[in-house]
Amino acid sequence: MLRLPADRPAVMGILNVTPDSFSDGGAFLNPSAALDRALRMVDEGADLVDVGGESTRPGASEVPVDEEWSRVGSVVERLAGRGVPVSIDTRKAEVARRALEGGASVVNDVSGLRDPAMMDLVCSRPCAVSIMHMQGEPATMQIQPSYQDVVAEVREFLLHQAGEAVRRGKAAQDVWIDPGIGFGKTTEHNRALLRSLDRLVGTGYPVLLGVSRKSFIGRVLGNEAAPLPVGDRLEGTLAVQVWAQLQGVRVLRVHDVLAARRCVDMVRWLRADGYSARG
Ligand code: HH2
Predict the structure, then answer these.
(1) What is the rounded distance in angstroms from the CA atom of residue 8 to the CA atom of residue 29?
(2) What pLDDT score was predicted for residue 274?
(3) pTM, whole model, 2 decimals?
């Protein structure tokens, strides 16, 4: 079972084996290119690799089970076979089941265990699970997201789903919660959630955060009409990740592993006990 580091966030490297992901779609569709990319992320300091075969970018449509598995299956098995901790990024219980059998140790479900078959699966296996909040479905989620109180509603959903998993036997430390930045949220919703990460950290469940290269960063550093392009969002990403680390987030889902891990280690050093001004 994967144990999260106690003194810094774990770095989860993103591997999208898809033709259409928002920042790296198509780059790693070939299994050996995908494996090379994953191993490079491990060299750069990733603690685990999150393998996904279906894009969840706004407007994306669903991929059938067999097609999703044909994209990710051999990558999951080959990585796990080399001892790399693997997370499977899927909304489908059948894909998650095959991945766990192939050696994955975490299920990352962006639909937050809303499918009872997914809840049953993760509660019957010795895996960790990441429960993410999303308003609606990827095809429509960005059309008009709306909340009375986004922080309270997201927290309530996550506590409800996590509580159900614990009631059904999962250890709380293996149930990660994630506010789902960009999933049915405006830039201001994202800001409210990022400013209130302590409300999620305070629940006691490990918090996972995925902000890497997301469009709110492009909009904040550019503007609505001309957001910064995806490839220009590294500094904005790192700033938010440092902020998250300081609030106690336990897992950061990132594309740029080397840069993320260096920031994480620097902040860890600053926060560590035993610092002496005399060196
Ligand atoms: N974001 C994306 C995908 N999966 N999983 C979690 N737990 N949290 C996230 O914030 C999250 C996620 C979207 O990013 P990406 O994988 O880069 O793109 P795409 O969905 O287009 O494949």
Answers:
(1) 32
(2) 62
(3) 0.96
